[in-house]
Design a protein that fits this description.
This protein has 106 residues and is an alpha+beta fold. Helices cover 18% and strands 42% of the residues.
Length: 106
């Protein structure tokens, strides 16, 4: 009950992710394609039909810098609809993650 109606709670995050799986077929049954983003970052694309999503997860405490040009582009963060531009030197904060769609190459 404590976590209900708290935007920063783990319960709210899980609810958001479950809603995303419902709204984005690529998260339910898309093909995986892992991308090189260094030792401490998990990076992969999920593709289903015309939909491709990029998932980035920093699994470490220190921030990680992305340098792989295959990751570069302008995306929509599907968690909050904000635009995210990934270019050389983009920093993924400690234990930060993104689920990105709508890539425009840079």
């Amino acid at each position: 009950a404590y976590q209900e109606n708290r935007p920063e709670s783990l319960l709210t995050l899980y609810q958001q992710i479950l809603n995303l799986r419902r709204d984005y077929p690529a998260l339910r049954n898309g093909d995986y394609s892992f991308l090189d983003a260094g030792d401490k970052v998990i990076a992969y694309e999920r593709t289903s039909g015309e939909q491709t999503l990029l998932v980035l997860v920093n699994i470490s405490d220190p921030p990680q810098t992305l340098t792989n040009p295959k990751l570069f582009g302008e995306y929509k963060n599907i968690l909050n609809s904000e635009t995210v531009t990934i270019e050389n030197g983009f920093v993924l904060g400690d234990e930060e993650f993104y689920i990105l769609g709508g890539s425009t190459p840079r």
